[in-house]
Amino acid sequence: MTEKGLFQLLNLNLHREKDRQKLDADAIVRAVQQDPSSADKKYKFKISPCSDQRCFPLHQAIALKAPAHVIHALSSPIALKAKCAGHRALHLALQYGAPQDVISVMLEKQPGAETKNNIYGNKPLHSACGHNVSLDVVMLLLNRCPDVLTKKNRFGDTPLHVACRKKAPLAIVSLLLSRHPEALNGKNRYDVTPLQLACQYETLDVVLMMLDSWLKDNMNRNSSSIESLKRYASCSESEDVRKLITHLSILYSNVRSKKNVSLVGVLSFFVRIQWWNGVDLAIDQHPVLVLLKLWIFTSTSWKIFSTWLSVVSNERGLIIDAKIHILK
After folding, report:
1. CATH number reported for the structural domain that contains residue 20 in this entry
2. Domain residues for 74?
3. Secondary structure (3-state) at 121
4. What angle is formed at CA 216 by the lines to CA 153 and CA 173, rounded to 5 degrees?
5. What span, in angstroms and rounded, lies between the C-alpha atoms of 183 and 189?
6. What residue ranges in the chain does DSSP mark as E strands?
7. Number of domains into which the chain is organized
8. What is the pLDDT of residue 129?
9. Looking at the domain assignment, is residue 180 inside a domain?
10. Distance separating alpha carbons of residues 188 and 222, to the nearest angstrom
11. So what's the pLDDT on residue 311?
């Protein structure tokens, strides 16, 4: 039986899982071994990641989510340097959520690829943060080029901006922030910070983690700084994120309308979402009001609140039997 050529082996519908499962990895490797020059040619596939449908086998294989040994076989110098719809092969792999072993092969085949831009000025780390890649892939790129954390794309976005806009998971956002804390306050070309983007797009756990870091700076503990987050939080799909920023703004508001949530309501909400730093802030800002009105907590709320109290009582020197206050 005659072996299929490289074009036939890769001429599959990359949008259909059934077609991607037909990918014959071993046959592709054999085809390249028999004719190495075939990896250096462009083919017009019926569906390809490139806008004109003409692309290198490497680009097509990446879009078909081919395994690492196939990517290794197809990664010729010509194909690695070529762009597909304005994106180099490494960027393309990250956009298709390639696993760590595939990214490792591409970095090995093309040293320095981790520093190259795509048409939007994104470094590979930007691309990784904007797509569904694993934490291992992000760590791999960071370890090879830690300076990329400070780099901005054409829109002035750092990788942290991109991660927050694209709803990256907590582990990835936390890693980026731990490696470059200063990025939290960095503004893009539109004067938008990563935290503002997180308030609009991210989940509650990510917003809380970033708020904890942001509020460590006393310069951010004021009405105007917190108000700058409200416009973005108001667009959030998460009701808890919207409430979080609204309740936080009440703590630092100079004017309290009767229509606003009460301070006790603020504290109750922070307890419900178990944001202990928020509870701490509430007591810092309004200790008398909080202690006078703690009786509103139910027995369930007390169990949660007592957890916070046991954690912070030694650190803050609070010698308060809160349960006695509640019972009274």
Report:
1. 1.25.40.20
2. 1-145
3. coil
4. 40
5. 14
6. 43-44, 54-55, 83-84, 87-88
7. 1
8. 97
9. no
10. 22
11. 52
Q: Count other C-beta atoms under 10 Å from residue 139's C-beta.
A: 16
Q: Give helix then strand counts, H and E, for the chain.
A: 21, 4
Long-range contacts of 221-225 (CB under 8 A, 24+ apart): 221/252, 221/281, 222/252, 223/249, 223/252, 223/253, 223/254
Q: Count the Cβ atoms, other than its own, within 10 Å of residue 201.
A: 21
Q: Does residue 70 sit within a domain?
A: yes
Q: Are 228 and 261 in contact (CB under 8 A)?
A: no
Residue 151 to residues 103, 117, 183, 241, 275: CA-CA distances in angstroms? 20, 11, 10, 29, 32
Q: Helix (H, G, I), strand (E, B), or coil: what is residue 84?
A: strand
Q: Is-contact 98 65, C-beta < 8 A?
A: yes
pLDDT by 10s per residue, the chain, length 328: 345 799 999 999 999 999 899 999 999 999 999 999 999 999 999 888 886 778 999 999 999 999 999 999 999 999 999 998 888 999 999 999 999 999 999 999 999 999 999 999 999 999 999 998 999 999 999 999 999 999 999 999 999 999 999 999 999 999 999 999 999 999 999 999 999 999 999 999 999 999 999 999 999 999 999 999 999 999 999 999 999 999 999 888 865 544 445 777 888 899 899 999 998 888 888 776 555 455 445 444 555 556 555 555 544 444 344 433 433 3
Which of 264, 266, 147, 160 lies closest to 209, judged by CA? 160
Cβ atoms 266, 297 nearer than 8 A: no
- State which amino acid sits at residue 300: T
**Separation between Cα atoms, residue 210 and residue 177, nearest integer Å:** 8
Task: Let me know if residue 140 belongs to a domain.
Answer: yes
What is the rounded CA–CA span in Å between residue 193 and residue 297?
A: 36
User: How many residues are recorded in the chain?
Assistant: 328
Instruction: Compute the chain's Rg from CA coordinates.
Output: 26
Predicted pLDDT at 300: 47
Residue 44 lies in a domain: yes
